[in-house]
Amino acid sequence: MDLTHAPSKPATDLGLPYRPGGLAFLREAARSFRTTGAVAPSSGPLAARLAAPLAMARAEFGGPVSVLEVGAGTGPVTRTLAGRLGPADRLDVVEINPRFVEVLYDALHTDPALSAASDRIRIIADSITDTDLDRRYDVIVSCLPFTNFEPHTVRSILDRYLSVLEPGGHLTYFAYVGTQATRALVADRAEAARHRASSAVLDGFATRYGVGDSLVLRNLPPARVHHLRAPGPLGRSSEAPAR
Description:
By secondary structure, this protein is α/β, with parallel strands linked by helices. It is built from ten helices and seven strands.
């Protein structure tokens, strides 16, 4: 994953149309599979499972919620989140790939679900570990391909999530099923060891903060969604998040 800053404004000459699951995603998967992490965008059932804590957080906190999505890609999960936003909810979308950022900006004007909620959506073209965030979040939805990253990067990202989550806040992320066995068969020893180490970091966080997981078969490939909660009593902090 490139942890350098992406441009603050989207490029204007890329010409990538907004097609959930379409050409824009396939181009980036071919160009940089390690950071894209998939051959197809997240399916509707996977997006719905990732977005499920939004309604729970609204009921628990008793009012509008602040949501952060990280690694939006072409926006299939963003569309689901946008459709579930209340009139006073807010959604920040962090995406470092400038081509995907272009797609997302275009979608705010052309996609019905996103354009209907565009006044409540902010796109942040940056890395989650580098960007300054000026609020805390009740819900974080992560679409990053964690097991493609180095273990220290996975830990850094997860620590960042916990630092900006409200006490008792929700975090969901997913992992594709069967990747560790596949890597063991086709990758060299160093790559297989890196994958195991990154998976171990995820498992450690899930053991410490996890409250459940579920399998989504209707996705390419099938995925397991993990649901974690930030430590501390339920409630909102008045302090700004620390970097």
